[in-house]
Amino acid sequence: MSKSKILVVGGTGYIGKRIVKASLDQGHPTYILMRREIGFDIEKIQMLLSFKEQGARLVEGSFSDHQSLVDAVKQVDVVICTMSGVQFRSHNILLQLKLVDAIKEAGNIKRFLPSEFGMDPSRMGNALEAGKETFGDKVIVRKAIEDAKIPYTYISANCFGGYFVGNLSQLAGSLMPPRDRVSIYGDGNRKVVFLDEDDVATYTIKTVDDPRMLTKTLYLRPEENILTQNQLVEKWEKLTAKTLEKVHISAVDFLASMKDVDHVLQGAFARIYHIYYDGCLMNFEIGEGGEEASKLYPEVKYTRVDEYLQRYLI
After folding, report:
1. Segment 189-199 mean pLDDT
2. 222 close to 191: Cβ distance less than 8 angstroms
3. Which of 15, 47, 139, 214 is the most buried (most CB within 10 A)?
4. For the chain, percent helix, then strand, then coil, each to nearest 5?
5. Residue spans of alpha helices (H) in 182-262
6. Cα distance between residue 15 and residue 115, in whole Å
7. What are phi and psi of 65, to 5 degrees?
């Protein structure tokens, strides 16, 4: 069976560029939407040209031109959108409604994967106010997809290593590991799932021609990467042969500290709260509407947290 042609929207972004690479690596004819608004963004232009040299096809289009989106969609079988949904980068989730309209009019798409790649928004109805915008927007997009009867797959990829592993999930400082002390959320024993971003892309592309994933959610929960924050810190300490000072932050103190930061950072605080205090990633069983990635695709040799941490040794 020939492999589906895939259009990636947001193909130069943090996850999008990995989706493009995984699509090419797995032998799919790969198309990237090149937005007319790209202007003088030289880094994005050079990345697109690099992908073109690797075999990807660039398709011009704009979210302000409905027909250009329809024309782009008609060239492929599958659309994967990776537009940012976090406030500290850019927040464009609802722009996908224009893409949904284009897919509906084109009428040829056999699978649409909207921009999710995080917590399952359908389970976040009781989220803190500061974090509700992203989850609410994703639910709106889901409803539009399902109302339009567009075949879909949703990806719940939990915690990207670049944001949660290297800095041991610290909100202050940087994305590099802390040197002397580390903040521990609560007792540090809530289970969390950590992912290598390239593995997220690999699993995502695996679903596009898989009938088992039609109208389902793929949850990425590779067993060896399900750790508590305490276990994550212990792995770093073992790797560096250095013990960090642990500063435990209670839920009450954590929530109080949110009042002192701006709206953008409050969204990040809210995610940390739900992950490390509520345990929202692992406090439910995967039901009939979902599948677990590492069980469904055991051939994928996913990166373990130990391997990910080694990149940060200096």
Report:
1. 98
2. no
3. 15
4. 45, 20, 35
5. 197-207, 229-240, 251-257
6. 10
7. -130, 95
- Contact, 253 vs 184, CB < 8 A? no
Catalytic annotation on 138?
Answer: yes
Token pair recorded at residue 51: 């992908």
DSSP 159-185: EEHHHHTTTTT-SSS-SSPPSSEEEEE
Position 155: which residue type?
I
Mean pLDDT for 196-206 is: 98
Tokens of 5: 């042609």
Alpha-helical regions (H) of 26-131:
42-53, 66-73, 96-106
CA angle at 93 for the pair 87 and 98, rounded to the nearest 5°: 150
3-state SS, residue 4: coil
CA-CA distance, 134 to 138, in Å (whole number)?
6
CB 171 within 8 A of CB 130: no
Phi-psi region at 126: left, alpha or beta (left = phi > 0; alpha = psi -120 to 50): alpha
Q: Is 237 helix (H, G, I), strand (E, B) or coil?
A: helix
Q: What is the DSSP letter of 148?
A: T
Gyration radius (Cα) of the chain, Å: 20
Could you tell me the two tokens for 23? 């699509």
Q: Tell me: the pLDDT tens digits for 223-238?
A: 999 999 999 999 999 9
Q: What DSSP element (H or E) covers 112?
A: strand 111-113
0.85 exceeded by pTM: yes
**Rounded-to-integer distance, Cα 276 and Cα 192, Å:** 7
Going from the C-alpha of 272 to that of each of 56, 69, 97, 98, 313, the distances in angstroms are 36, 36, 28, 31, 25
21: which 2 tokens?
A: 């690479």
Q: How confident is the model at residue 84 (pLDDT cuts 50, 70, 90)?
A: confident
